[in-house]
Amino acid sequence: MHDAAYIKRRDEIRTYFDRTALEAWKRLTSTEKVSGVRATVRAGREAMRQSILDRFPADLTGWRILDAGCGGGVLAIELAHRGADVLGVDLSPQMIDHAIEGLPHIRNGGSVTLRAGDMLAPELGDFDAIVSMDALIHYDAKAAENAIAGLAQRTRRKMVFTLAPRTKPLAVMHVAGKLFPRGDRSPAIQPVAIERLITATLSRPDMADWQARSPRRISRGFYISEAQELVR
Predict the structure, then answer these.
(1) Which residue of 30, 218, 227, 228 has the smallest Cβ count within 10 Å?
(2) HEC profile for 143-165?
């Protein structure tokens, strides 16, 4: 069962995407020209997506993968093109509808299914791998730890996810975002002490057979995020 803090935060994020920022995110994930700030975010997200993909083999035939917080589905599609059967889950029904409209033909025998819902829902089943790009960054350290541990129980091989590092530049951006709010800006991210969070997660009894691989941080202007890989 999810704790009350997770549920409250989850519902805030769903409201943001469905009522406030869908059009802004459509522009961000498209090829149309965007402002300087959003251009750095777009470049950062593209670099992070490639960093996540680099942690998987070119042939994913036979893999079942969950894209937790799939957004527009770009990462899910790339994994499917490598032969995986990918389930993409996002809190926003409108975002999922938008992603389904843009689904291409999937090559190499893979498949993509996109669904609105909670990425932690146990009824989604078990997976060979789970990816989660810039979804956990909206939760505090304890909620993120619980989410990672919960997902691990349904994962056979590996998890690759991103966290927002607690850095001075990110702290400044975080404060500026609160001082000068805009309706289409993302809900405040939750920078965390990543090394401490990963250590705490791997110290849990239910994570005894997991270990961490080398992380990679991507920093492009207003985009700062760190990819973590845990493997069985």
Answers:
(1) 30
(2) HHHHHHHHHHCCEEEEEEEEECE
The DSSP call for residue 134 is: S
Whole-number Å distance between alpha carbons of 210 and 201: 10
CA angle in degrees (0–180, nearest 5) for 218-221-223 = 50
Nearest to 70 by CA among 126, 9, 116, 123: 116
Residue 26 has pLDDT above 70, yes or no: no
User: Comparing C-alpha atoms, which of 95, 116, 70, 122 is closest to residue 16?
Assistant: 95
Cα gap 81→98, rounded to integer Å: 20
The CA R_g of the chain, rounded to the nearest whole Å, is 17
- How does pLDDT run across 195-212, given as a tens digit for each residue? 999 999 999 999 999 999
58: DSSP letter: S
DSSP code for 139: S
